[in-house]
Amino acid sequence: MNRSLSVMATAxxxxxxxxxxxxxxxxxxxxxxxxxxxxxxxGSPGSGNGVGGxxxxxxxxxxxxxxxxxxxxxxxxxxxxxxxDPRAFGGxxxxxxxxxxxxxxxxxxxxxxxxxxxxxxxxxATSTFFDNDYTAQVASPALVEGLKAVGERIAAKVVADxxxxxxxxxxxPTGADDVKCLRAFIAKFGGRAFRRPLxxxxxxxxxxxxxxxxxxxxxxxxxxxxxxxxxxxxEFLYRVEVGTPxxxxxxxxxxxxxxxxARLSYFLWGTTPSDEMLDAAKTGLENxxxxxALATTMLANPRAAARIARLHAMWLNYDxxxxxxxxxxxxxxxxDELVKKVLLTNRSSWTNLFLSAETFLDDxxxxxxxxxSPGAAASxxxxxxxxxxxxxxxxxxxxxxxxxxxxxxxxRGVWVxxxxxxxxxxxxxxxxxxxxxxxxxxxxxxxACKSERYRVHRTDPACAGCHRLMDPVGMGLERYDExxxxxxxxxxxxxxxxxGKGEFAGGADSFTFSGPGQLGDVLLKSGKLAPCFVTNFYRxxxxxxxxxxxxxxxxxxxxRFAQGGRHRFDELVLDFVAAPPFRHRxxx
Amino acid sequence: MTHRxxxxxxLAGAHGTAVxxxxxxIMMSRRAYAQGGVGPTRYxxxxxxxxxxxxxxxxxxxxxxxxxVGYDLPLGLSQLGGKTxxxxxxxxxxxxxxxxxSGLKIPWDGAPGGRVTKFHASSxxxxxxxxxxxxxxxxxxxxxxxxxxxxxxxxxxxLRFPSLNYRVQLERYNGAYARIKGYMSFxxxxxxxxEPNTPIVSPRVAYNQLFEGFTAPSTDPKQTxxxxxxxxxNRSVLDVVSEGGRRxxxxxxxxxxxxxxxxxxxLRELERRLGQVPNQAASMLCRQLQDPxxxxxTQSVKQEHRPGSPVGYAGEVERAKLMVDLVHMxxxxxxxxxxxxxxxxxxxxxxVEKIMGRAVDLHDLGHGGGNTGDVARAYGWHVGLVAxxxxxLKKTPEGSGNLLxxxxxxxxxxxxxxxxxxxxxxxxxxxxxxxxxxxxxxxGGLKPGKHVVATGRHPASVLISAMTAAGAPTNTLGDITxxxxxxSI
Lengths: 588, 489
Description:
- The complex is a heterodimer.
- Chain A is globular.
- In chain A, the strands form six sheets. Chain A has a three-stranded antiparallel beta sheet, with no helix packed on it.
- Chain A is mainly alpha-helical.
- Chain A is built from 26 helices and 13 strands.
- In chain A, 58% of the residues are buried.
- By secondary structure, chain B is an alpha/beta fold.
- Helices cover 33% and strands 13% of the residues of chain B.
- In chain B, the strands form five sheets. Chain B has an eight-stranded mixed beta sheet with strand order 2-14-3-13-10-1-7-4, sandwiched between helices.
């Protein structure tokens, strides 16, 4: 199924033309087809593996993962049972904390927020939409130097703050050479940092650092050095999963309670397990019901709300907005509040993210949109008769697909295809088509309207095959500018009205729509949106691109998600973590 | 400056650390250079993700009209002529210290060292390494010139860093998922695979790396003691970290072990560096730079994952200055012989707001977002950084001359201007015709100060000449053979 849909998108691309112009270096490579579904060697830089066929830097090219899309209408004949084979979630490997996870973990362990110092660390390479792709993590001098620098900054902050450090240490030292207190601190802090209790000899490993405390007569000198050390330790930076071999199954290991707690914690909270979770790990988490119960508790924690909001922000690419900080903040809040309300507070259908008739606005954002102000305090506002509905109507989401200083119907179309329905659109270069995707479509006259300029994409048969999948989608969003404000004429061209009518063509069906509210509705009706989300949910959860071996699990999860039209996100999460493969690992 | 540093003062300053003392460069070199000996060379390559013209307009404002000695300085090269407007960022003319090579071309017809016709995904590889790429990414499929020079020079002497790789532009402008990663330096790894050297982007991290445990000639014993203690602590911390890594590795399966080994090796390398006696000051002008503090302006960027649109400015102009200072001091202090600076990415979405005075990104500037003059100004910013480095090196005496006499500095850019085979269009920025390279310094017999019109020759030829001048004599880089001999005539 994975492959078939991608090929379908490609076929659709070609249906209208492209005859005779396909050539060049890579014509034989079906974009988004076999290549898109292929997974490459872990972290091979620039190999292109793991990025869909359209990801070439040709400008308008797709940059999203693709080729592993799940097909429409999860249902027909697909099992909706929770995958029970412990190997169902594919092979897994050591995962290093992402920058964000590192930051949140440090905050939880030490009470220090890195804020700007996070830039000392190298950015997360990834082949998915998410920042936690372990297959793209490659250590470098820049990484170890950055970790060292950041460890020094954190330790200095901790040691300089009497309240922070006494809370961290947990005992009152009798002097610089208090061996007992230092050991207690190492056991406590090291155990939290390594997400498991330390053995006595492991505690001893750190004791030589006490000589620096003795030398300058300050117990906390050693504390600072130990903090620095632990933050550079591989077992802190990487989530180690060893487990115990499962009898009768080749290369399958059952995670111990601590390893499972860490998996849960980084999945649902993006940070280190709490003390309570580590306690639970010591005695329980033996059966699916325990895991389900713990995860239910975790979902009620604000950390889960933040994590799930971020999952959606990364998926739909609005986690960093190109707007003034105050406006951007209002937009983040608008989208995050909707995610939280629909998925966690109301626990209603996930599809309501795209259908919601109300939105969370503050005065600034209401004015920005030209909607009635909620007053001094931000609150839920009804869209009323305007055509906005759901997440796709948010300024955050509509900030996608901007090029040449304006909205780009092509870029927005590509964004929808990539992110929302998991389809790849190859770049012209990839198809060997002579076109410059980096320049705006040429204008016949200076006053030509945008719709006129983009007409060439439909009239030139070499372009039309693919562009009919993109441009009409973007055109349906054209009445919303690069910050999500409504407009009826083109910027600076009052003689160019925007009709805002769009079309989503896909497979056998084609849907017309007008505006982002109807687009959400149409995408849900196409049967492609929810399965594509499940695919991305899966990528986020396992920390890598999906591989052919994952296909059945994704299909089953998508079918279960759709069962009875429920689309309950919390059920998806609980089914996922309670499934046997979540508590096992198979090495790659 | 008549500082004298004897072996004895150094021993006293080293606080009795029992480490075998190498024969210090500073003591050897002054004598050798004073007798007219040839000092060690430095090799520097910078890359910019820019073209020299703007789509649809004929001509450019970068290539000098006049060939040979005494070439003119069009707008794009004006910064070679010095800059005085900003007193804190001023330099003198280095025009006579640079040659301009124009008319270079990377072929796309399948010739060796040519490129695939996917402009942004194919041009930087052949440019920097002389090897045709896959067309999926602009990465090199062979080692880059800086690494070949580092190998050649490193075989003769062991410095603190075989090479330094810095980058100015932040990654966050570019789509995090794009295949353009901001690499320009590639080496042959242990398994024979070509691997990128991940550049350091944070001036603060670069600063720490350069100056940790570093003892520039200092007469202040207190400072020396404090540094010695810091160094000892750092070593102890790393000892414990390494031991933890060793233990962990024994618990892991094969695949995870491999994944971790790389990180572990990097830690060992860090340990090794801290274990070295760091004082290898070549010049009395070697000094520890001022701590750069928190990285400039990185907080203003609000966008990470979206290519193609102007974004908040992320402090590149300020960061670039710091990087230039760091390279200069690393060369001055003999901490390395080789450095690369990726100023802007291939297909750069970096905001050039600070340079242009309006919100626009470098990529769009050439594609309708600006005219020929605008592109020349953006190109000129790149030139200015290299000129500034040259000026600093020139003002750093070494032996009977100065550091620039012993250096080779090269600036290359992603695009030239002319025919774009993908569109079949002329006057285009997606072109590897009419590429320009700047070559500065006088190492190895380079005779700068001229405009060399090298019509149709491959830009890797310029690097071949540069490598040879830097002391890694070669006639090939990747698939390209032969240098640009005019540079030494």
